[in-house]
Design brief:
Shape: globular
Number of strands: 8
Radius of gyration: 17 Å
CATH superfamily: NAD(P)-binding Rossmann-like Domain
Distance between the termini: 32 Å
Structural class: alpha/beta
Largest sheet: 8 strands, mixed
CATH architecture: 3-Layer(aba) Sandwich
CATH topology: Rossmann fold
Helix content: 40-55%
Strand order of the largest sheet: 3-2-1-4-5-6-7-8
Strand content: 5-15%
């Protein structure tokens, strides 16, 4: 059983289609009911939630845990880009900077909630769809309230995913649950890229091949970052234990505030 978040468009939809063609059982998550219905017709099992709100992430996890007795792969793919206005700061319903909330915090919390099921299904994998567009997190202003720029917000959220990947891999060492992150491809023809106004450079097929590689061909590898199908080195902050500790503290603070 493979769960893909953000599965109704772009890269997620492509990966779901390829997995279904190969006979995999797939849970496709999305926000758009009509697009989920299309995936259902293709054979995917579907779940709806808006991952910008952590209570909906909780509800999604509750549904998965109630409905399924195993989960072999979790692909945290859902995300948003910079938008067309790079200077416009937005917040989630929980009061978190929106890119950080959707691109990082939702996947973090969903993974945490589903860890018992992943452990019970081992060998199992977590694949975090990050980006080469990374920016070091400014822990003096992580929500960018004093100085906002869309590319920085996006880059911080994507680096946070990679930092979480490194931490969780260390935590799960010896459990037969692996955790890896990747930059699938550069500027694919997705809604995210179109909204940014930047031209495309890669295809969905290239990005999809990289995600499928991490799903199928990285047995035993954990805590790694890939650029496409090749191991790569992320922003130096990912290797900084103190920075990762700061991120863990910030994350727990944000999750607790949102859910209490």
């Amino acid at each position: 059983m493979i769960l893909i978040t953000g599965a109704t468009d772009g890269l997620g939809r492509y990966v779901v289609g390829e997995l279904l063609k190969s006979g995999e059982r797939v849970i496709a998550h999305g926000r758009n009911e009509a697009r989920l219905a299309e995936l259902s017709e293709l054979g995917a099992e579907t779940l709806r939630a808006d991952l910008s709100e952590l209570r909906q992430v909780d509800k999604l996890a509750d549904e998965i845990l109630a409905r399924y007795d195993r989960l072999d792969v979790l692909v945290n793919n859902a995300g948003i880009g910079t938008g067309s206005d790079f200077s416009r700061r937005e917040e989630s319903p929980d009061g978190v900077e929106l890119r950080f909330a959707v691109n990082y915090l939702a996947g973090y919390h969903l993974t945490r909630r589903l860890l018992p099921l992943l452990r019970a299904s081992a060998p199992a994998k977590v694949v975090n769809v990050a980006s080469a567009g990374q920016a070091a997190i400014d822990f003096a202003d992580p929500m960018l309230t004093r100085s906002y720029e869309g590319m920085r917000a996006y880059g911080q959220s994507k680096l946070a995913q990679i930092m979480f990947t490194v931490d969780l891999a260390e935590e799960l060492a010896g459990s037969d649950v692996t955790v890896n992150a990747l930059h699938p491809a550069t500027m694919m023809p997705t809604t995210m890229v179109r909204e940014s106004g930047i031209g495309t450079m890669s295809t969905l097929e290239e990005g999809g091949a990289a995600v499928l590689y991490l799903i199928h061909a990285t047995d035993g590898v954990t805590g790694a970052y890939y650029n496409g199908t090749h191991r790569a080195t992320p922003n130096a902050q990912a290797a900084d234990p103190q920075a990762r500790q700061q991120l863990r503290s910030l994350t727990e603070e944000l999750v607790t505030k949102a859910l209490n």
